[in-house]
Design goal:
This protein has 372 residues and is an alpha+beta fold. Helices cover 16% and strands 44% of the residues. Strand 23 and strand 24 form a beta hairpin. This is Beta sliding clamp.
């Protein structure tokens, strides 16, 4: 195998592949990337047995072939090569070496046989549809902060993607929750997505998927089966197993009867929460919201380190209310708001609070209060 490729193109492909590779693993071949050169392009494939990413790049292929080499090392080498360099990769099958040349730099890396590399079985996908990158980006970006990190509740360690009845008809919906807060984001249902089985996309896959969604013009081909999900652009294919579990009935925790309405500038609110939370030693210290007519006082009282209060002008015309929240959760939810105003809907100081962006009901957040 021998091919030449631009350094920038190679770096993009190798960086995407090596990020899937687990740093610590007991199977040596899983630390490698499978390089396959044929025709006028090269494929880079990496896997951790749960996720597989295949990145295709244009190259000048002199001799077709395939081999596997340490993904992290290859990425580091390419990253340190000068901009604009033309990189030539040559495999010597007899010696079991891959030579990387660029200008006056020359590297030789040990290889492992391509036959040992595990390729994820392609499953029969029951549903295939396409969605614009910005739509998927919004669905996952706005929900992923609420993914649970508790390993025991493994079925909450991802984003639940499914078809649901939204405010404006059928919707493609992403939901994540860790029991303390919940995010539910809707987008118009894409064509052919109606029969999609609901799947829980794992946290690591959500992180890797984000790299496919930067181009606003891109259409992403989505394929879903009961056990796998695949997201593909013309050059990159990300395949992942889904979490084998049942996502809880989240509709039960979204409050319906919250009538006390607070409207506040989202950016001012987030900054004020951040400021008053500075005095608390732990990030989880409760921030107290004291609401009175058109006035909100945020306060933190940490007996061992100090106290802080800040007042904000808001729109609120209900009876007095005092309610406490984890400062970190409030900040994460407030930072999701793209519009100017955040609308909070309260019931009482002990009930879950609903938050949405202005009048937009396609993004709904729920946060549980804390005792203060």
């Amino acid at each position: 195998m021998k091919f030449s490729i631009e350094r920038a193109v190679l770096l993009k492909a190798v960086a995407q592949a090596q990020s899937v590779v687990e740093r610590r693993n007991t199977i040596p071949i899983l630390a490698n990337v499978l390089i396959e050169a044929e025709g006028n392009n090269v494929q880079f494939r990496a896997t951790d047995l749960d996720i597989e990413v295949v990145d295709k790049a244009d190259a000048m292929v002199e001799r077709a072939g395939a081999t596997t080499v340490a993904a992290v090392t290859l990425n580091e080498i390419v990253r340190k090569l000068p901009d604009g360099a033309l990189v030539t990769l040559t495999e010597d099958g007899v010696k079991g070496r891959l030579t990387i040349e660029a200008g006056r730099s020359n590297f030789s890396l040990a290889t492992l046989p391509k036959e040992d590399f595990p390729v994820m079985a392609s499953s029969d996908y029951t549903t295939n549809f396409s969605a614009p990158a910005p739509v998927l980006r919004r669905l996952f970006d706005k929900s992923k902060f609420a993914i649970s990190t508790e390993e025991t509740r493994y079925y909450l360690n991802g984003v639940y993607m499914h078809i649901a009845d939204g405010e404006d008809g059928r919707a493609l919906r992403c939901v994540a929750t860790d029991g303390h807060r919940l995010a539910r984001i809707d987008a118009a249902m894409p064509e052919n997505a109606g029969d999609m089985p609901g799947v829980i996309v794992p946290r690591k896959t959500v992180g890797e998927l984000r790299k496919l969604l930067d181009d606003d013009e891109m259409q992403i081909a989505v394929s879903v089966s009961e056990t796998k999900v695949r997201f593909a652009t013309p050059n990159i294919t990300l395949t992942s197993k889904v979490i084998d579990g049942t996502f809880p009935d989240y509709t039960r925790v979204i409050p319906q009867g919250n009538t006390r309405k607070l409207e506040v500038d989202a950016s001012d609110f987030a900054k004020a929460v951040d400021r008053v939370a500075t005095v608390s030693s732990e990030r989880s210290r409760a921030v107290k919201l004291s609401l009175d007519e058109d006035r909100l006082v945020l306060s933190v009282n940490a007996p061992d380190s100090g106290a802080a209060t800040e007042e904000l002008a808001v729109a609120y015309d209900d009876e007095r209310l005092e309610i406490g929240f984890n400062a970190k959760y409030l900040l994460e939810i407030a930072s999701q708001v793209d519009r100017e105003n955040a609308v909070f809907l309260f019931n009482s100081s002990g009930d879950p609070t609903l938050m949405r962006e202005g009048n937009d009901t396609s993004a709904v957040y729920v946060v549980m209060p804390m005792r203060v």
